[in-house]
Amino acid sequence: MASPRSELNLASIDTDQSVWRGGRIPKLAAAVRSQRRQQLIEAAWRCAARRGFQATTVDDVCAEAGVSKGAFYGYFEQKQDLLMALLEDEARFYEHLLERLSATGGSGIEHLRAYARAVADRSSDPARVQVSADLWTAMLTDPAVRERFVAAVQRRRERLRTWIEEAQTAGEMVEIPANAFASILLALTDGLVLHGSLQPSAFRWNNIRSALDVLLRGVSS
Length: 221
Known about the structure:
- By secondary structure, the chain is an all-alpha fold.
- The protein has helices spanning 4-11, 30-51, 58-65, 69-72, 79-103, 108-123, 126-139, 143-169, 178-198, 205-218.
């Protein structure tokens, strides 16, 4: 019979449910769990870039991440939960981008130009194009996906509207309904991503960046 001391040492082993088969399941440290969860998310992005998210299986993601299927279900109950995680991962990128641009101290119009270029750069990633298309498909049937997506887009719209209002107050931009123009910028970028998923060869993202610059110069005063 194992001593209390040996049980204590055994319980402190860094492992997860996929490799533990006896007695009480040890818990991973929060930082380790977060790192392993992110490892699965990044593997899912790579898989989605090759075959699209809908065609990607849990086995594909596990093989890409180099983990067991049991480990996957320690973090996600089903594949749809992984799609939600990709949505949140993408939303975090845009929130960090908006915060970083706001902290630079530039003008409103400069923030808008930098945002448009960053979005075009991000959207040229084939994984993002595929997952974005799958997200829009999921929104038609899954209220939870739609609710989170709407909330993420609303946060972006509010920040863009603030920059537009700042640019107008500073005399950098012509008078234009701020919320409407923010919505146009969002619709343009999202629409281009979806269009790119349907016909990847239809346009070049370098040209899109140039066109967005021209659009913003057109509303500058």
